Every structure is written in C-alpha cells, then in structure tokens.
Amino acid sequence: MTKTIRSEGHEALCQALIDARKAAGLTQAELAQRLRCHQSFVARIESGERRVDVIELVAITRAIEVTTSEILKVVEEATPADHRI
C-alpha cells in the first residue's frame, strides 16, 4: 500500500501551496493571519507534517487568492496512476 504522507502527490501539494503563497507575496505569518490560525499550522502543512482536508484546502487557496483547481492540477500530475489508498 502506498503512503499518502510523503508520497509524490503529497509532496507536490505542499510545494504547490508554498509556491502559491510566495507568488502572492505572503509570509507564513501573513497567511496564518488571513486563516485566523497560528503560523505553526501553516508551517506544519507546508513541511508535510500535517495533512490538509478538502475544506481546509479551499480556505487556504481562497486566502492565497488562487483557485483550488490550480493546486489540484499540480497534485494530479504528480500522483502516479497506480497510487492506491
């Protein structure tokens, strides 16, 4: 069984969120402020220590001002076709 933490898709998600945040000119602290959470929450997501559920992903992408589909496209491309849950 393939792990979803530290998998290609999960690592791509983390990197896509980092890239989008930086492209928006936001620090982790500024994103956390928009999300009304602690900076450590953002850091744990970006480092891959914490998984993101769909609702959180929508909130994060809105706060960064990118579409969820932009982020998911990167994840889809990075996830092998034979990936199993």
From TrEMBL:
Domain HTH cro/C1-type, chain residue ranges per copy: 17-71
Domain of life of the source: Bacteria
CDD domains from the UniProt entry: HTH_XRE (cd00093)
Gene3D superfamilies: lambda repressor-like DNA-binding domains
SUPFAM superfamilies: lambda repressor-like DNA-binding domains
InterPro entries assigned: Cro/C1-type_HTH, Lambda_DNA-bd_dom_sf
GO molecular function, one term: DNA binding
Membrane spanning residue stretches: none
Name this polypeptide is given: XRE family transcriptional regulator
Organism name: Palleronia sediminis
